[in-house]
Fold this sequence. Notes:
The protein is an alpha/beta fold and 328 residues long. It is 25% helix and 23% strand. The strands form three sheets. Strands 3-2-1-7-8-10-9-11 form an eight-stranded mixed β-sheet. The chain has a three-stranded mixed β-sheet with strand order 4-6-5. The chain has a two-stranded antiparallel ribbon with strand order 12-13. The longest helix has 17 residues. Keywords: Methyltransferase, Transferase. GO terms for molecular function: O-methyltransferase activity.
Amino acid sequence: MNPFINPVFNPVFSRYPLRLVDVGAAGVLRSPWPRASTFLHVYAFEPGARVEDILQGQNQNITVFPVALSDHSGRAMLHETKKPDGSSLLQPSNNLEPYGGSDRFEVVKEYPVEVETLDQIIAQHAIPYVDFLKIDTQGTELQVLKGSEGTLVSVFGIHLEVNFFGRYEGQTYFSDVDSWLRHRGFVLYDLERRYLKLKTGLNFGGPKGALMKGDALYLRNPLIPDIYNDADPESRKARALRKIAIALLYGYVDVAFGLFQEFNLFFCDEEIVVLRDFFSHTKSSARFIPQFRGRVRLARFFKQIGAWLEPRSNIGSSGDDIFGNSLR
C-alpha cells in the first residue's frame, strides 16, 4: 500500500516531507519507515561509538546528531554493553542475572557523552515541524519525552520502547510513559511484547517467559480537534496528508479514512475523487470469506501451526511478530 496515496500529491510531499526523529538510531531504519523513504527526512540521535553506523545507506535525507537526548542539557555517562543495543545512560540492573542472555547487558565501557533536549535541538536548527518520534533509549524514554514537550505540538505518532521489568537502575516503566502520553492527547494503538525465560528452564514449556519490555505505538487521538494550526492552506493540506501517510504506514486504514473525512475541506474536487478511489481499494478481503461452522477452530489451528514452526531462541527470548496491521 502506497503511504503517499497517488502521484498527484507528490508535489505536496516534496515541499512538506515527513519528518521523523529517531532517538537511539544506530542500525537500520526500522519497519515500516523504509517504505516512506521517497518523501522522508530523518533526524537521527545516537551518542557514542556507534554514531558512524547510523542508517548508513538507508536514506539520503538524514541529519545526524551525535548526542543523547533527555530532559536536561549537560553531560552524562554512557554505559556501553556487550550487546550494543543494550547501551544506556542507566546502569543495567542485577535483576536480569537469572534470565537467558543476561550477559548481553554486561557493561564493557563507560564514557561521558553530551546530553541535550529535543526541544533545544529543534529550536537551534530551525526544524519547522516533526511528524513522528521513534525512541529507543533503554529506560530513559520518559525523560526524552519530557524534553520534547514543545516539539510534540506537531507530532502525530510515537513509537517507543517501554519496560515492564526492571532492566536498568532508575528506569521508567510502561505505566509511567502511558499516563504521561494519555494526558497529552495520545492514544495507545498497539503494543508488541517481548518475553525472556529463566536460564534454568530454557528448554521447558512454551516460548513465553517474563514480560520484559515491548514496543508501543501511540497516535494523537484522531477524535479530538487538531491543536497544531497551519495558517497557509497548502501547509494544512500537507499536514493532513502526512498524518494519513503515517496511519497507512502502520496499516490503520480506518484512521487514515477518518482523517480524510476530517480534513476533506482542504482538498479540491479532483483530489477528493482520487482519495475516495484509493480508499475504495483498501477494503479488507476477509469480507469475501463466508461465515461457516468451524471457521474459528480452523483459524486457531493454523495459528498453532505457525507457533510450532516459529524458531526458538537459544536465550529464551520470544515475542509478537505483528505491529500495527502490518508484518514486521
